[in-house]
Amino acid sequence: MSHSSTERTSATEAVAKTHELEQGAMKMAQVGQRRVVVIHTKNGFHALDNACPHQGYGLATGSLDGELLTCEWHNWKFRAEDGTCVIGEENVACHHVEIDGDDVLVTVTEPTNEEKLAALWPSLRRGIERDYRGQIARDTARLLEAGATSEDIVAAGIEHGLPRTEWGLGHDLAVSADLLSLADQVEGLDKTLPLAQALSGFSESNRDRQPHPMPEVAPATPSTAAFVDAVEAENEADAVNQVRALLATSDHNDALAEARRWFIDAVSRHHYNYGHGAIYCQKTFAIAERMPQLTELLLTELARTLVFGTREDKLPYMRKAARAIDAVDLAALANAAPASETEWHDTDDQLVNLLLDATDAPIDELVAAAHAGAGIEGLLSVISLAASHRLLRYDLDIERDRNEEFGWLDITHVLTYVNAARWAWSVEPGPAAARLVLLTAFLAFDSGRAERRIRRLDTTLPAPTEGDLVSAVLNRNPDDAVAIALNGPATEVAEQLEQASLEDTAGSFIVMAHLVKTAVAAHEESDAIGSLLPLAATARFLAGPRAERFVTVGAREAIDFVKTGRPPKR
Q1: CA angle 274, 162, 520 (to 5 degrees)
Q2: Is 563 inside a domain boundary?
Q3: For residue 323, what are the contacts with CB-CB under 8 A and spacing of at least 6?
Q4: 219-228 burial by CB neighbour count: b if 16+ within 10 A, else e?
Q5: What are φ and ψ of residue 335, in 5° steps?
Q6: Strand (E) or helix (H) holding 569
Q7: Is 316 exposed, middle or buried (0-12, 13-18, 19+ CB in 10 A)?
Q8: Could you give the CA distance from residue 147 to residue 189 in angstroms, rounded to a whole number?
Q9: Cα–Cα distance between 280 and 263 in angstroms, integer?
């Protein structure tokens, strides 16, 4: 972890006369640059910072009951002798007191940054363990001020969260990669917001969970085939030990590059968990590149994610598309001439519209287009545009339907999934990544099931207009948000969407994660395809009504299932 040195400085002041401060009394005084509260109890004189560590209210205005000092604002209580917090979240700084004749001498010694960090790291970890959001935010700001890096701080969340995952990685890890990127865009203490969001995700997701057991270390000879076979066989121990063996036999950069090939191969074999497998793969490697010390923890948990993940291509609704994908010559598809070498255009968005409105996933048509000049890059652009149109024409009344399970989040996965496939193709182009692109095409098609089953909103894009995009999002004006986003420029729109995604309007962690991940993916997709549509679509999602109804939907499904024994409609 980073440490930034400062010189220790001390200040000593006579702050009171012993006869002036009766037992059971308190007094605020200035020592150097610090305000302290001097406390006289039956055990003697004590001095603490006057500012309550919660929100800074003066402790001298609180109450003293024997050896216990209470901040009346929120009932936090501290031991007078050493500042230990008895009720609340954080201790308050305690200072040295001497009696010289009638004088009460208080010495305030300012700690070095190393000393601040040594005290703050355990405090942050306690805040994460107990899901104390305020403590997490305050300690994050204090750590930044003392010289900790963004990576240092997020690592504390990862080290707490990942050992406690039940079946592999979750949204907390995935969104933390994006929140780290957003923290890079701001300076100083402004990094607190994205970093605190990341830590709060790990905290909420894993509160009161104990670390899970890991397979015992066993000798293994690392190979792609052995790893993929272990994942396919749902053999957690072999998959984890393959990762360990790879990391033990190569230097970090070589091992990471080889592991990336393994995981892209494995994740392309199936449509995992509505696209989460590929998305988590992309984000895990992004973090591993920044935090090499966590590589084994990250990759073994990613392996568990794939071992335990649902293979949706085996389910009835995907079998037809899965057969079509299995029949594709993936090597030939990966080598299809890209758009830069042959003039290919999706005239009048014919392929986009087919993907949106076809009766079945148009796998054969997409493959034919790739060979006709689209290449893999062209297919990615088509899927990205289809995802954007799907968001733009989503009927907002569906979100208000109390009995409907389908919602915004189902569609946003298309954009983040295709962005993960684009990453896989950029770092490891070949048959595996090409297959992953076809899987994202299926999801783009499948995300239209609400349109096919319920209703579709016929939309006409509004005329571009100037305005404050963040305000349009926060005021929940989706039409205005789309019009402002379409006005561009793309970089400015993307930055405003990312800012709006951090504004804590989600109401729950899982929704916040989707707001941030979709905003970041839209930024990257807009840059990749040269279109404002991913940004406009995301603006509509961020600004639109959202029903965070997970408990309600779950309860209704439970009632129906217990009554009828039938699964919910998909």
Answers
A1: 50
A2: no
A3: none
A4: ebebebebbb
A5: -95, 5
A6: none
A7: exposed
A8: 11
A9: 11
pLDDT for position 4: 47
Q: How much is the mean pLDDT over the chain?
A: 92
Say how many Å lie between the first and final Cα of the chain, rounded: 47
Together in a domain, 434 and 522: yes
Tokens of 377: 């890059």
Is pLDDT above 70 for 302?
Answer: yes
The model's pLDDT over 472-527, given as tens digits with 9 standing for 90+, comes to: 999 999 999 999 999 999 999 999 999 999 987 777 888 899 999 999 999 999 99
168 Cβ contact list (under 8 Å, min separation 6): 280, 301, 302, 303, 304, 305, 306, 307, 308, 309
- Position 1 scores a pLDDT of 46
Residues of the chain with pLDDT > 70: what percent? 96
Question: Which of 262, 280, 306 is at the close of a domain?
Answer: 306
Q: Tell me the mean pLDDT in the region 109-120.
A: 90
Q: Does residue 569 belong to any structural domain of this protein?
A: no
Distance (Å, rounded) from C-alpha 556 to C-alpha 281?
Answer: 33
Tokens of 33: 């640059």
Whole-angstrom distance, CA of residue 123 vs CA of residue 130 = 11
pLDDT tens track for 253-292: 999 999 999 999 999 999 999 999 999 999 999 999 999 9
Of the residues 153, 177, 206, the one at which a domain ends: 206
249 and 126, same structural domain? no
415 with 283, same domain: the answer is no
Indicate if 376 and 480 belong to the same structural domain.
yes
Cα angle at 542 between 539 and 545, to 5 degrees? 120
Q: How far apart are CA 97 and CA 48, in angstroms?
A: 10
| Rounded Cα distance, 237 and 234, in Å | 9
Structural domain contains residue 65: yes
Question: pLDDT category, 549, cuts 50, 70, 90?
Answer: low
Dist CA 364 CA 8 (whole Å): 70
Is residue 570 domain-resident?
no
Q: What are phi and psi of 478, to 5 degrees?
A: -65, -40
- Residues 141 and 177 both lie in one domain: yes
Q: Which of 349, 360, 412 is nearest to 174 (CA)?
A: 412
* CA-closest candidate to residue 508, choices 84, 172, 43: 172
Distance CA 128, CA 539 (A): 31
CB atoms within 10 A of CB 314: 11
Q: pLDDT grade, residue 2 (50/70/90)?
A: very low
Residue with tokens 């930044």: 144
Which pLDDT band, with edges at 50, 70 and 90, does 469 fall under?
very high
Query: Residue length, the chain?
Result: 570
Based on the domain organization, do 255 and 388 belong to the same domain? no
Spatial contact of 227 and 262, defined as CB atoms under 8 Å apart: yes
Neighbours of 210 (CB within 10 A): 8
The crossing angle, in degrees rounded to 10, of helices 192-206 and 150-161 is: 10
Q: Looking at the structure, tell me whether residues 465 and 381 fall in a common domain.
A: yes
Q: Considering its fold, how many domains does the chain have in total?
A: 4
pLDDT tens-digit readout, 332-380: 999 998 766 567 888 889 999 999 999 999 999 999 999 999 999 999 9
Range of the domain at 71: 11-110
Report the amino acid identity of residue 389. H
CATH number for 69: 2.102.10.10
